[in-house]
Structures are given as structure tokens and as C-alpha cells.
Amino acid sequence: MSDSRVPRLRRFLVCEPRHFAVQYAINPWMHPDTHVDVDLAQEQWRTLISAYESHGHRIDAVEPVPGLPDMVFAANSAVVVGGRVFGSLFHAPERRPESTHYDLWFKSAGYDVQRPLSVCEGEGDLVWTGRYVLAGTGFRTTREAHREVQEFFGHPVISLTLVDPHFYHLDTALFVLDDSAVGNNIVYYPEAFSAGSRAVLERLYPDAVLATRDDAMAFGLNSVSDGRHVFIAPQAEALAVRLDEHGYVPVPVDLSELHKAGGGIKCCTQEIRS
Ligand code: ARG
């Protein structure tokens, strides 16, 4: 079964956690008195980058900026589909300046950036499945932004309501296993969603892999799949077993130091889809 899963090589934008810290609390995982070991955070992050590179994925990096401790969470900076970039507008004032730095990187790489008019936190809440954009709301990105994203890309945007503050971004509760037309599938933790949104996900993905609360609390839903390998938190043990049963190859990468800010593997990874 494993041999039927075919990886697609990706291009990822990342930002080293050189200035990583937990200085403010904008989600339930963050406690400003927590000690953060920046050297360990950097070491763990480099392990993620090496894992991507050793699986053939291309890495681009944005220069980290002092005073922006959450800038490591590159996924929040934009959503990129078909070479078109929809930028970010952060909910928290502390994170707002990040957008300028990411926009400058995109512009230097030859992309125009569409600026959102309403709060929009990039791939944190906007998940491209290969068919539609699944779009989270409830804590950060607004429904108004979902409409803007649909208008900009001309792809269907499906609004989903998040109800548990631990899973404040869609990418903490759901990830795409396979974005190809044939095997298109996702993994999610149902209780993170409102009843209506759960019903929508059941209709769209009757064969989805469902995760437990333990998997979700271990940042197991904040994973990155290339269609075969799933870069996943080692703490999400049960989910890794299920993925293996479904023919995927779990690649454990521990970002425990970054979990202190409420982020994991996917949060550190912005996919640039040409
Ligand atoms: N401390 C950051 C925040 O609360 C973490 C962001 C995590 N990013 C993500 N894509 N879920 O904004």
C-alpha cells in the first residue's frame, strides 16, 4: 500500500527562530513567563529543514526580524495558489508588522501581493486542498476575508467555524494528506469544529482520517504531507500509526520548544505553489 503513495516535491518558505520568544499571550498555549530555550528551538527547527531537504523539497528563507518573536510561523504570512499571493493582516497588533517583511520577500521573489482588507492569517486558516480552499474562522481570520480570498483566487472557499480556543487556527485541527485529484484527502479532529462545519467536512471527505483530542493536543494536526511522507510531531503517536495503516510514511520531527507559542510543523511552513 505504501508504494502507491507518490510524493510531489514542494517549495517551502520558512523563517529561522533566531528571535523566537513567548512575550505575549494570544492563544491558550502561550504563557509569557515561560522560559524558552532559543538554541533548542533553532536546533529543532533546523531538524525540520533538514528533513524537508533530505526528502527533496526546496527551501527559501525570510530573514528573521528582532522584536517579532512569532515570525518563525511562516504559514501565517500568506496563502499562495497558482503563483498568486494573498497576503496577511494579523489579528494581534504584536504580529501585524510581520506582513511587511514577508510581502517584501514575495516581491523580491517576483510575486505581487494582494493585501487583505480584513483580518486574515494566511495558511494558518486557509488550507488549499487541490480542489478548494478550506477556510477557518472563529478566532482569527474573518468571514469577510474568506469572501476576499474566493474573489481573488476564483476557487471555491468553504468556511468552517472553529469552536475550541486550543485550535484557534484551522491548521491546528486539519491538514491535507493528498492534494492530488485522485487521492484527495484530509485528516481532521472533528470536535474542533461547529456541528454544521463537521457535517460539511463529512460530506466533502467521507474517507477522511479522523484524529483524537490527544493527537490534536500533541500538534499532530499541524503536519505537512507531500502526498507520501507526513512530517509530524512524534508526540502524536496514535495518529502516526493510523497514517501508516493508510499507506503514508510518518517522518517524526520534534518542535516541542515552538509548541510553547502554540505552533508546530505546519505553522513553520509556507507552501509556495507555482
Ligand atoms: N503564537 C502564534 C500565534 O498565536 C502561533 C501561530 C501558529 N501558526 C499557525 N499557522 N497555526 O499567532
From TrEMBL:
InterPro entries: DDAH-like. The active site is at 169 (proton donor), 267 (nucleophile). GO terms for biological process: arginine metabolic process; citrulline metabolic process; positive regulation of nitric oxide biosynthetic process. GO terms for molecular function: amino acid binding; dimethylargininase activity; transferase activity. Keywords: Hydrolase, Transferase. Coiled coil: none annotated. It holds the Pfam family DDAH_eukar. It comes from the Bacteria. The keyword Transferase applies. NCBIfam families: DiMArgaseDdahMtb (NF045659). Belongs to the DDAH family. This is Amidinotransferase. It comes from Streptomyces griseorubiginosus. The lineage of its organism: Bacteria, Bacillati, Actinomycetota, Actinomycetes, Kitasatosporales.
